[in-house]
Specification:
This protein is 37% helix and 21% strand. By secondary structure, the protein is α/β, with parallel strands linked by helices. The longest helix has 15 residues. The mean pLDDT is 97. Bound molecules: glutamine. The site of glutamine has 9 residues, from loops.
Length: 276
């Protein structure tokens, strides 16, 4: 038998090398004990059974070996929505909320907008928009059946009814015209130095080719044909891909092309409108 405080100390030490180590230690101890963070901090002298302590230490071991906390907890908060996360989907990243923000602004003045989230993964982007705009009709497009099942489960659990799921590759399942098409496609280069640290997430969500621009180029070439007049295409990309994506959207004859920076100051989302 140990105490909450001692167990927290052990996990903090085990995860000290991680940027978010202290916070992650609290999340994992909380998950192992089935109690919230506030309670852990308030009652450090509470007794912990050997079984619960072993469970917390095992979670920390898996975390230290690279598994994301979101997978260990089975959930991640995005846009204030609690999403189920499994190894079938990319863990939603905070910077992707920028894509949601820009998308919502683009359809603010449009009633009953049609929206498509290409490569929806957990459904984070499309579900956030559908949740904010109950009049929107949002399509979650995903080529991985396992990922699409996670997205559908999230829609059901959150009670978001104005979405439909479509299995398929980027624009292939689209029909008609949309006011908003968004995507956070795989954009890392096949030799990106970050990839070894992302080994527990689906490679298809991270890498689409040698340079990282391949999926962005395919979407930029195919999506404008499905935009309504005035409709917006918004693409998340890597910090060093802004110029390339602006060029792709210009080649696709979109107008008002601009790039937004994320909270870290990196170029992160480039968008353009169909003018004709
Ligand atoms: N933003 C992710 C990362 O850097 C990459 C996601 C993607 O390729 N779409 O971990």
């Amino acid at each position: 038998v140990t105490t909450v405080g001692a167990l927290l100390g052990a996990l903090r030490a085990r995860l000290a090398h991680l940027a978010e180590g202290p916070r992650e230690a609290e999340l994992l101890v909380g998950a192992a004990l089935g109690v919230g963070r506030a309670r852990l901090i308030a009652y450090p002298e509470s007794a912990v059974t050997e079984r619960d302590a072993q469970r917390a230490l095992a979670l920390a071991e898996e975390r230290a070996r690279g598994r994301p906390v979101a997978q260990l907890l089975g959930r991640r908060e995005f846009w204030s929505l609690e999403l189920e996360v499994t190894e079938a989907v990319l863990v939603p990243r905070p910077e992707t909320e920028l894509l949601v923000e820009l998308g919502l602004a683009a359809i603010a003045a449009h009633a009953d907008p049609r929206v498509a989230d290409l490569g929806a993964g957990s459904g984070a982007i499309g579900l956030a928009i559908a949740h904010e705009r109950s009049d929107a009709r949002v399509e979650l497009i995903e080529q991985s059946p396992a990922a699409l099942a996670v997205a559908c489960g999230n829609a059901r659990r959150l009670g978001v009814a104005n979405v439909v799921a479509k299995l398929g590759d980027w624009c292939a399942p689209l029909v008609g015209r949309y006011e908003l098409i968004l995507a956070n496609p795989p954009y890392l280069a096949a030799d990106d130095a970050a990839l070894p640290g992302l080994a527990h997430e689906p490679r298809a969500a991270l890498v689409a080719g040698a340079t990282g621009i391949e999926a962005l180029a395919r979407i930029a070439a195919s999506a404008p044909a499905y935009l309504a007049s005035g409709g917006l295409l918004a693409l998340e990309h890597g910090a060093d891909q802004g110029e390339a994506v602006r060029a792709l959207l210009a080649r696709a004859s979109l107008g008002g092309i601009a790039t937004a920076r994320d909270l870290a100051g990196h170029e992160r989302v480039t968008h353009g409108r169909r003018t004709g």
